[in-house]
Amino acid sequence: MATITIIGSGMMGSALAFPARENGNTVRLVGTPLDRDIIDAVRKTNRHPKFEKHFPEGVPPFPAGVEAYQFEEVDKALEGADLVIGGVSSFGVDWFGEEVLPRIPLDVPVLSVTKGLFDLPDGTLLTYPELWRRRLAKKGIFREVYAIGGPCTSYELVAHDQTEVAFCGPCIETLRRIRAMMETPYYHISLSTDTTGIESAVALKNGYALGIALTVGLNQKERGLDSVLHYNSQAGVFGQAVKEMSRLLALQGANTLDNLCVGAGDLYVTVYGGRTRLVGILLGRGLSITEAKAELKGVTLESLVVAERVGRAVKARIAAGGLNAADFPLLLHIDRLLAGQGSADLPWNAFRFERSDFALAAPSCGFAPAAPAAGRANLREKPLPKPLPKPLILAHRGGRGEYDDNSAGAFADALAHGILGAETDVRLTKDGHLIIMHDPTVDRTTNGTGPIAEMTLAEATALRLKRSGEHVPTFRQFCEVYRGRPDVDIEIEMKLHGDEMKPEDLDLYIRLLHDEAAEILEPGTYGFTSFSIPTLKRFRELYPDAKLGFICMELTDNDIRKALSVGCFRIAPEWSQATGPLAVAKAHAAGLSVNLWCSNSPFIYDTVAAWGSDVSTSDIPRTIKAYADGR
Question: What pLDDT does residue 35 have?
């Protein structure tokens, strides 16, 4: 069985020790620096102090065999771990990213229970896995974080109540392995590679749960604290909340039924069992937010932080003209209350809607004349919306969410599925040969350890990839997959940068790349890409006719100027940081092809298609192609 290390001994992190241990895994529970008393209690009593009152008969107070560690022992607790679960609250996000994630070996998956969103000044909302990914990438650490979403309270999980959640992350095979470690007859796990969708859905419910709870407090204020619960008002606000959550998921490029249902389920359980409910009730009774917080002193209220961030992001988008305030009356009402403005009375009239576009399909009401025949004909003859274009799909590292990362088999399989685009990464061994590898070390994807730059070709290619057992491929082997194919589009990312190495080493690297590609691949089917302008500049000096591409995070006017300065044919920004169709149009006007990466859900693919992206890299290219072929 597996070894699972849980870092953060709060209620949810500790609750996950039950399914983890009951599956026969070795479970290590590590406290944060704030959890010392909890870890001491677990060591003494085999019981989490906050779970004592929540167990039915027959369920032990804490799973036998769970090992407890203080944080200064975390490195010992991480030794030999097959899975790390992050159990911190939203208030621990920065700490977890700074102190914990860099310690964890890259080949060990990390699963986070922390729900929330982080807002940028332009109104962009980042999930915590994405926030961690970006921050770690700036340090040269390339780590994906998986996450748990869905309706689940810690004490009911401990009580073995039937629970349905969703695990999400970029690789479906990794998700399946994690599910095998964690799923029990009472803990049911759906899987999704749409991390943005699942994580956004479960975070968006925070403010809306408060809004629903307002109705309880308002009724208590009017009818007395001992009055019976009223459900019409709660249901009315619940419906409006789900409607607005759907619009926000669309903003995130993730408005699928599965995502919305995960979020709605989490909203339900938060309304009836969460701490956010207490705040909403107090506000409904007439307390200010300051008074409500004072009343609940000592209760962790991380949901308020997330609600404030979402409100701030939506207001930024409204100010920029990207959203309509009339579409978010409940969210904006909650935002005003959290800012200490206005009364709790809900804007019921703003929740109303009128739909007349379905009336023509219904029989006449009998007391009003039917629509004129001409009117019916005109409405029925409205032109259908234009079909979305279909950007060419590039298999990112062969489709690392569906296959081995950068394996020859992954690229061959993608091509066999009709995926004509590919993206790969190339590094240089110490004896001057090219191999396919994304990371600077082989630790994450192979059975070996150490930097590639310190290995010979023989040493590097003797290693086997962890999932398929294939040998690490050379660049020449990658090119052979596409020999004789004039119909492909290949991006070859240079992982060595001119500002990090000796000029003679960079020149050797560039010449090897150019010559091996030119020897095997069809002319015009490939280009060399990099985040580094100095590297692209040197490539242009050595090979004036080469096709080059600039990889960036945003798509600003300055990014476009940089790409043009070295004669790029393509610019490749990260899709969620690009500023939409206007930025893509500017790139096109400058003569650049655009690759918005990564299309890791059908709705992201549709979004980048609507924005005008020419190609789009994807970790799940087979899934996206099947979707695109069917729409």
Answer: 93
Flag the least confident range among 10-19, 240-249, 374-383.
Answer: 374-383
The whole-angstrom separation of Cα 508 and Cα 498 is 11
Has residue 134 got a pLDDT over 60?
yes
Hey, CA dihedral for 407, 409, 411, 417, is it positive or negative? negative
Residue among 522, 538, 532, 590 nearest 560 (CA): 590
Instruction: List domains and CATH numbers for the chain.
Output: 3-193 (3.40.50.720), 200-351 (1.10.1040.10), 392-630 (3.20.20.190)
Band (364; pLDDT cuts 50, 70, 90): very low
> Which residues, other chains included, contact 206 with Cβ-Cβ below 8 Å and sequence gap of 6+?
115, 116, 270, 276, 303, 304, 306, 307, 310
The pTM of the whole model exceeds 0.85? no
**How are beta strands 526-530 and 548-552 bridged, if at all?**
parallel
Which residues does the annotation mark as catalytic? 396, 438
- The per-residue pLDDT for range 579-629, each reduced to its tens digit, is 678 899 999 999 999 999 988 888 788 889 989 999 999 999 999 999 999
Task: Using alpha carbons only, give the angle 357, 359, 363 rounded to the nearest 5 degrees.
Answer: 160
Distances (CA, A) of 383 to 159, 358, 378, 380: 56, 17, 10, 9
- Residue 450 CA from chain centroid, whole number: 29
CB proximity list for 263: less than 8 A, separation 6 or greater: 149, 200, 201, 202, 204, 205, 242, 245, 249
In the Cβ-directed half-sphere of 64, how many Cα atoms lie within 13 Å? 2
The candidate with the shortest Cα–Cα distance to 338, out of 316, 309, 358, 360, is 309
C-alpha triplet 178, 183, 187: angle, nearest 5°: 135
Per-residue pLDDT of 572-592, as tens digits, reads 998 877 767 889 999 999 999
User: What is the residue whose two structure tokens read 């940068």?
Assistant: 497
Which pair of structure tokens corresponds to residue 375?
């009117």
**Which positions ≥6 away from 137 have C-beta within 8 Å?**
none
Residues 496, 489: contact at Cβ < 8 Å? no
Given this model, what pLDDT does residue 455 score? 96
Q: Six-digit token pair at 568?
A: 């790029």
Structure confidence at residue 229 (pLDDT)? 83
